[in-house]
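Design job #97: recover the sequence.
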């Protein structure tokens, strides 16, 4: 398939104030778009000016939520070059999500190549300040105008880019986490392992309640027994328990995070024993009190590593250690970001340079 490059008549000046970038609010001048029709396959791939879509009000995505997305970042390095972190993993996961949602798969290497071309056009939009990056959002939506319930015969796949600020301004802040004993995010056999918008729509109500009560995030338990901790918002959860790293196994209800995967590799390299098993909520609450649980952190592309300060469940709250980011948590945060920003070598070939 050819990639058409459409002209852009009035480029906007890139980022005016790098210090005040709000996550996901500002977008670059161009985007990648391609279209799919049953019988024809993917076609009309192009890099074009960033612009709204005109969609039929009956477009299936609006009614039955056939939608998937990805999230990755491009980093500006000290020498000015631009690096992507494990982009092939994101496009492989995009296709796994597509299969689960009965959407057409994409040619992963074509899409990665198109993304690299798009970022080359938009290179001035990759911010320079410490901790900043260009957030990349590949998305696919069902566009066929049709109210019957079945997979769509038409799709749009697009990639938009958004310069984002350092997640942590003024130091890494530990989060206060509410463990929901009622609401659930994903059930076995459901769509928890697909990166699809519906999972997020379903999580908003509990997240809103958590925010109203002063919590930063919701930690989801398994839907069946409401006993085993699974993941948080848009992050996987890792625990330092009895000196070992414990994290939820990937059995369909937890998203296969690329930051999770990278963290496990680095922690294994540091000599930590890793157990992919479901920690119970009692182990978390008692462990924080009796000292068996010394650190806990979330992993995800947007935050990289997010230390947990305290957990609250039903009527009680427990603080982890002294409530400050753990030593291992911070070591891991620096190791990972140093590879991303090219301050340390990349022995795992995680980085793709533009
Ligand atoms: C995207 C996402 C993550 C984190 O995945 P990364 O690949 O590390 O960014 C974790 N949980 C959920 C539900 C997600 O959507």
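Job complete. Output follows.
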């Amino acid at each position: 398939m050819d990639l058409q490059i459409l002209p852009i008549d009035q480029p906007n000046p890139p980022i005016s104030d790098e210090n005040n970038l709000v996550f996901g609010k500002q977008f670059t001048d161009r985007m990648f778009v391609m279209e799919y029709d049953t019988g024809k396959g993917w076609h009309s791939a192009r890099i074009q000016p960033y612009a709204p879509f005109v969609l039929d009000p009956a477009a299936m995505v609006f009614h039955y939520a056939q939608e998937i997305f990805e999230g990755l970042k491009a980093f500006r390095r000290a020498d000015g070059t631009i690096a992507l972190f494990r982009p092939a993993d994101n496009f492989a996961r995009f296709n796994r999500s597509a299969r689960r949602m009965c959407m057409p798969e994409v040619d992963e290497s074509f899409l990665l190549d198109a993304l690299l071309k798009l970022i080359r056009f938009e290179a001035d939009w990759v911010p320079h300040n410490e901790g900043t990056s260009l957030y990349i959002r590949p998305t696919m939506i069902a566009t066929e105008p049709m109210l019957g319930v079945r997979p769509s015969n038409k799709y749009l796949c697009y990639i938009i880019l958004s310069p984002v600020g350092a997640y942590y301004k003024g130091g890494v802040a530990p989060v206060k986490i509410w463990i929901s004993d009622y609401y659930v995010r994903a059930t076995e056999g459901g769509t928890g392992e697909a990166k699809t918008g519906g999972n997020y729509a379903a999580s908003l109500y509990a997240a809103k309640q958590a925010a109203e009560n002063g919590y930063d995030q919701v930690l989801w338990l398994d839907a069946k027994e409401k006993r085993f901790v699974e993941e948080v918002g848009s992050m996987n959860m890792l625990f330092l328990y009895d000196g070992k790293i414990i994290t939820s196994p990937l059995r369909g209800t937890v998203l296969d995070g690329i930051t999770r995967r990278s963290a496990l590799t680095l922690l294994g390299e540091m000599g930590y024993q890793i157990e992919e098993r479901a920690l119970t909520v009692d182990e978390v609450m008692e462990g924080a009190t009796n000292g068996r649980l010394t650190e806990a952190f979330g992993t995800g592309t947007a935050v990289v590593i997010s230390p947990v300060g305290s957990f609250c469940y039903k009527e009680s709250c427990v603080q982890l250690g002294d409530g400050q980011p753990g030593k291992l948590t911070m070591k891991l945060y620096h190791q990972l970001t140093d590879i991303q920003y090219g301050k340390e070598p990349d022995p795992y070939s995680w980085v793709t340079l533009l």
